[in-house]
UniProtKB/TrEMBL annotation:
Record Gene3D superfamilies: 3.30.390.30, FAD/NAD(P)-binding domain
Protein name as catalogued: NAD(P)/FAD-dependent oxidoreductase
Cofactor requirement: FAD
Top-rank taxon: Bacteria
Species, as recorded: Plantactinospora solaniradicis
Amino acid sequence: MTQPSELTFVIVGASLAGAKAAETLRAEGFVGRIVLVGEEIDRPYERPPLSKGYLLGTEPREKAFVHDADWYGQHRIELLLGRRATDLDPSNRTLTLDGSEPLRYDKLLLATGSRVRTLDVPGADLPGVRYLRRIEQSDELGAALRSRGSVVVVGAGWIGLEVAAAAHTHGCPVTVVEKDELPLRRVLGDEVAAIYRDLHLAHGVDFRFGTGVREFRGRDGRLTGVVLDDGTELPADLVLVGVGIDPATELAEAAKLEVDDGIVTDAALRTADPDIYACGDVAAAYNPLLATRLRVEHWSNARNGGPAAARSMLGQPVEYDRVPYFFTDQYTDTPSLGMEYRGHVGPDGYDRVVFRGDPTVRSTADPEFIAFWLRADRVLAAMNVNRWDDGEPLEALVRAGHQGRSVDPDRLTDPGVPLTDLLR
């Protein structure tokens, strides 16, 4: 019989999710071998600072890292950085590194995250066309923004808007190009997406909606402009492309695991193979609260999914039913918008959006309000803007809404009614 000390648990993905999984394995008493494999040369770090505080220059680089450099050795975690996992053979329980070196495992966790989508248009290889996913890309982008040249952001998603705000803060003229008619419309719906449009307009950001990029133009190997679908050319010293990410499912596909917009898992983050688990951006996990399979690309899913997967690997009962959560901070000068979003609702999954407080964006003050996405008077999602004491009651409202409990919309929008009283 194999002794616990003889077991090898391998985690592919030296990321926030992977690092928190390794931390939890040790905290829960696992005494065997832990190997944490990562393609990047940097030890595990959190990604939100790359487009927020670190990019702005308000947070030091070290703050992004999950653990101190010596933490891994102190906890007997083998950190294999700059190593690429190229094949996975579940029948022999082996993971191939760098195309040749086999690594045997007893349990394996796939925390491989996602890869940025790229634009395949003429000029896409010009040096001024940038993407943001890794810490060294944030280093390069921050240095470029400090030159205060003209910036074009392609894609008005979270990364695109945060970079637009950072570019404005660095003193750059900014234009955002978005194929949809509003920023974040597919995520937030028209009502709240318009608030983000107004926020950026108040800071002088120019939007070009309903169009995409035909070509990047340059001169003498240097980016000079962006040609849109309608032929308009925008001057540009720097372009940030933020058109989404795709889950890194190559290993799962090689192992013939089920993949459907991510690696398919049950509520315990187990794949169909009893010795392989998945968490973070790459996992399409069944959420019992939402009664659907869902892939969540945000920080909290990595932060919470890693520990949940580790406990599942140890045979502990796990039901990963967390309410999806994400946050953003945009702009440091007025009007600024810091928010937290809890819940899940698709573009056609709600009846209406209602507000507690005034969502109007003004140049003289920061907006302060809560937005609620309702269906049949059930709160399916909530977003608190520039209000930081409402997290727990909003989480309770959203969880109750997905469990079928309704609220009185008039009381919901009345600032005089405590949020904690709405479910009584």
